[in-house]
Amino acid sequence: MTAENGWKIKSSAAVVVDRRYRIDLSAPIVGLDSPNAQAFAASDSEAGGDYPDKQFFALICRSDLAQRHHIADKQLANEFECVLQPHACGYIAIDGNVKPYLILERPLGGRVMENYAGGKGIVEPIVTDRILPKVIAALASFNQRVSTHRRVRPENIFFLDQACKEVVLGECFSEPPGYSQPTFMEPIERGMAAPAGRGEGSIKDDLYALGVTAALLLQGKDPTAKLSADEVWARKMSQGSFVTLVGDIRISAPTDKLLRGLLCDDPDKRWSLEDAQNWVWGTGTRLTHTPVGARSARPLKIGSKEILYDRLAAQELGTGGDAVNEIINSGKLLTWVREGLKDRDRAIRIKNLIDDAAVAGEEAKSLLVSRICQCLDPLGPVRFGGQSIHRDGFGAAVAIAMQKGDMATQTVISDLFRTGFLNAGISKRNPEGDFAGNQVNHRQMQQFVENGAPGFGLERCLYELNTATPCISPLIIEAGAVDLGGVLKALNEAVVKAGSNVEVLDRHVAAFVAARSTYAAKEIPKLAVEGADPAERRLAVLGLFAAIQDVSNCGPLPELASWMDGRMSPVLDLFKNRGRRDRLKSEAKIAASLGDMVGMFRVLGSPQSRAEDRRGLQAAQKKYAELSDRLARIDDGGDVRDAETRDHGYVVAKYIGIGAVVLSLWFIFAIGL
Amino acid sequence: MIATLFISLFFIAAGMAPTVVSYYAITRAEDRVSGTILLFNISGLLPVLALIWTSPESSGVWVADIVTWFIIYMAAGTGVAVIWAAPHMVVIFQSLFAGPRRAKFKARQRELYKEWGPSVVSD
Question: Does the interface predicted TM-score (ipTM) exceed 0.95?
Answer without folding.
Answer: no
